[in-house]
Protein 1
Amino acid sequence: MNGRQFKDISFNMRKTIILLLLIFFSLLLKAAGPKIVSHPISDSQEKLLPGPGKENQFIFLNGIASYYAPLNFDSAIMYASQALRYATIHTNSFDVALVKVNIGNAYYFKRDFKNALVSYLSAQSILEKGPYFTELGELCLMLGHINFFIMRGEKAISYYRKALGYFQAANNETSLPAVYDAMGLTFCFSDYTPADSALIYGYKLLNYSRKLNNRPLEAYALMVVGMFYLDETKSVFIKRKALAYSDSALKMATGMNNDELISLINCNLGGYYDKSSPLSEYTGDRALARTYYDKAYAVARKTGSSYLQSRFLNYLAWIDIEEGKYDAAEKDLDISESRLNDPIRFSNQYIPVAFNDPFHKIFQYYLTQQQRADMYQFRFQLAMARGESGKAVEYLQLYYVSRDSINASQQGRQLELLMAEDEAGNQSQKIRKLAQDNELNRLKFSRTRFIFISSGAGVALLSVILLLFFQRRRLMAERRSVLMEQRLLRAQMNPHFIFNSLASIQNFVINENPDQASIYLSRFSQLVRNILDNSTEEYVPLEKEILIIENYLELQKVRYAGKFEYSISVDEMIDLENILIPPMLAQPFIENAIEHGVRHKEAMGHIDIRFHPEKGFIRIEVRDDGIGREKAHEIESKQKIRHRSMAISITRDRLEILNKKLKKKIRMEITDLKDGSGQACGTRVEFGIPMVLR
């Protein structure tokens, strides 16, 4: 079992008895609840463990740890630690790997993804040494889940593909539905690849369910395929396919009395007819959308799922706001908020038995957090519709706090995982280096004892010196990189710009201009999101960089109405999607062009931004026809303006770090422009960036 080789029949009998006792003990624990004393096993308690062999004790402790992993994290870790002690001393490395997987599972359900990753990677390094394909497949599946929840879609898909390969190598078809489901949802909810890929795995899940004649799995798969089609916006035909699959799923779920699945399918059908749909001119039917949402909510109340109730109440509130039923909308949102404050109760009624539930359990937690942000957004819309500007600003702030807390949590965990992966990689390199050093020392020892001692001492001393040297350099580089990222992010998200933008939004609200407020808010939120996303990336597609610049300039045009116009020109030879550049190099200088150039100009100013190729480089040019740097400094000194641009110093520091990694260096040149009489007529900033392709 699990790669073990038993020596005789009597041991098999003992193991069977132990497992039966374990099941009985687990049932008693489940009846009593997951509360358990979290302290090490004493000598007197150790006598109660199955015996007489240490391997029996390991099986018992590891089984308890596995049972408690999703229920009581600390107790699971405690029992797993005890099992790890027995496995390390008395059994084998495979048992050690099994315990580390259980420890990783406990941390995973605790949403401590960094420690979960450390345990999983440690177990993986052991399992890869043997033919443990099923265990490796399950491990890669969990690693994929972790990366999905921190929005690293490409990494998640990579692990899911590995899991698929391991399960196929083990001829383990029962685990394939979990992989198909996770891959489809990853393609659907991330920007890694086109949504068509989600449909590919949705159909694989559907075909597999029909192959097994598994009706619960087939109903779930039909719902998933319908949802993936609903996410498409290519044509009305595509939308109608979503309707057809959802109707089929609803009929099957109704026949099986699967309330939660019925509720979710009714929600999808409501979304099909919702007026907010991208193809509402074809499918929009607010009354029919309300009917499906009402059905979804009624069934959700039967199941007792607080998350689903909140979700459907939010949708109903939005329809009430559109129809001018403000009191009904407020009542729906009040109930929605109270449901969100209920403890999260995970239910897997709608998930087929063939599925691994770790993915959906954590997924439901994140969806609940998203519903809270949506609820605040709908409260903002309600306050706007009622003309309550004070409440509107308050709910808008709560919306941003709620949404940003989700983004901050995901980005923080991204950084933690990157650090954990780096530590694991460094540890493997150190082990390989140590093995090489030991082999070298053994060969030297075969020659003479004196040479061995001298060489060993020299290698040890040199290793310590190099380790300290490189560790110091790494720490200094990490510290400098963190400081640089903080300074860059602060420069990109200028506090004055943020406060002025929020003030503009408030001004639109107070002046009862909801359309302009909505447009400005949409652009502002998109800009902030893009800046936060790019702050963790070393290179981004040129197309994405140009989109951020354009969004930023449009917002600044609202702030400085009538002060400037701009143009962005891109050479037709440039491949916008596949050429990569460091993010936000030009933006600080565009800000300078506005703040210190055209803002002080009496006539209408102009900012010209150009992108064109030049002998293996991408040349970026930012030109303005403002008053020039010297005149701007003179004016701001007289007016005692404290706005101080950090663009030049931060960008030069960034270029110094980037150029250390590049053979061709990034060049930057700033030119003060003069007219025919020698008077300042603007500033030009040019970058020469080595061309990098995807």
Protein 2
Amino acid sequence: MSKKLRYVLPCLLIAGYFGCRATDPAPFDPRAMQRVEREAATQDEKQRMTPLPTTLQNPFPDTQSSGQKQPAPPTTGMAIDAGPIIKMPLQEVVQRVVANNQDVRVAAYQPAIDQTRVIEADARFDPTFFTNFQYERRNNWSAGSNNNFNQPGPFRDEAWLPTLQTGIKQQLESGGQVQLQFQSQRQEYFPDRFNPEPFYQNDLTLQVTQPLLRDFGTQINRARIDIAKNTQKISLLEFRKTLEENIEKTEETYWALVEAVRDVKILEEQLEGTNRLAHILLNKHGEADRQQISQTNERVETRRAELVRARAHVRDLSDQIKQLMSDPEYPVTGQAVIMPADEPLRDPLLFDFDEQIETAFNNRFELGEQQMRIDSADVAALVAKNNLLPQLNFQGSIGLEGLDNHLDGAFRSQFGGGNLSYTLGLQLEIPIGNRQARAIDQRAILQRAQAISQYHANLEQIAMEVKQALRDVQTTWNEMVQTGRARYAASDALEALQQREDNGEALTPEFVDRKLRAQEVVADRAHAEASAIANYNIALSKLERAKGTLLRYNNVELSQEATPYMQSVGLAK
């Protein structure tokens, strides 16, 4: 064996025994994480800022006097179809949220972290190999006589006593400990005091310690493992909670975006109608008075201001969806605008209240979490009750001894038979008063009762949420019905005014004001209807969340063993 290999081989053995990482984690690089958003931000187009008005400005050139300065062109904000438009169905948006959302990804680490705590608790029962080597050099003065030389003391007592101990020990799930130890010692004294000398003494000992009252039993000694497993299951349910929250927020934002797009179209139609009325007045060549023109002009500018805010709101919601998706293909700072590809549901759905309650009680993650906490409280109470018992331990050992002036002879003597020895014993310990154990036991009982009361409170909370969610579905449906009727009535009133105008009725200030107000009413009723439709679809999503079936509703499957996030980040194989 080469000298280099002599040094390398022990290092490899040590590394293999104590464990090593396949790959070290990459260093944290915040600049690299910022790269996608930084690059997308450089593609932003700078928008021109329209100057504020300092005097009355008429946007209609037909009535602009030649001596007045031409005003800046009107602005209604960036059109919602300006720039790259990406139409996405809700299912695709949800899939991207499930695959990339950062909050969900952060929450996915906790189940894997808690899984390591389960292994850590279970590792308490792993066997341990030990080796001890000691070299003792004794050089003392000793009182008394040296029988070998018949000399009175004091005399110098010298000895060389190298000792090697090696063996294996293990904690047992029953609460005991077993240890198998081999010891070899070479003894040499000056002056000689034994025959033969020097000599080797070998001892092979099997020692067992087993509690018989306190700390006895598999349930007691595996309590930490069981509680760690429950904690890991709770963290998996907490991960599901984060996933449900983000999916619910995604659906709510998506339908809000559908409503916002509809609002923009309503405002554009309203602005177009008001502009038509304004141009009709301008084309009357002096028949329209100043009040009519200014009144119409005010409504046009108001519509434009509302359209500015409505178009910006569409882009705000698009950015919120991109933030929820956390998809590097569509960074938040990018110019792509996410637009809805799905139409909202407008069909009535009927639900049985008792069936929805039963579904919620079978699927809500809060009840699963609380059941795990109650189970952990049961385990803690069992351990606390066991701690009330006295400490009574059985101790036993059996050993083989060998002695010879040569090491091989000591082995032959040891295993040749006849050198067997053993010990048996009991150790009893009773704490007077035992106040600490009694206090722990009382606390465990109270914590278990508290966990059960919390479970009952969760049942009532879930029942209320399901009931309110069902009522919200019915309420939003009724709102859809009524707002639809109101919109049709308002549209009919505006159509009646239009027919009167088409039949030649004079555009008096009163008639113009009535028509402008009718246009506003139609737009308001259309907004209300769009809001009711979006709220109906959001209410259906909230009902699924209240029942605990939101993931199933969106075709998302969550494995109880490992989530896709854990696999993607290397936490589960």
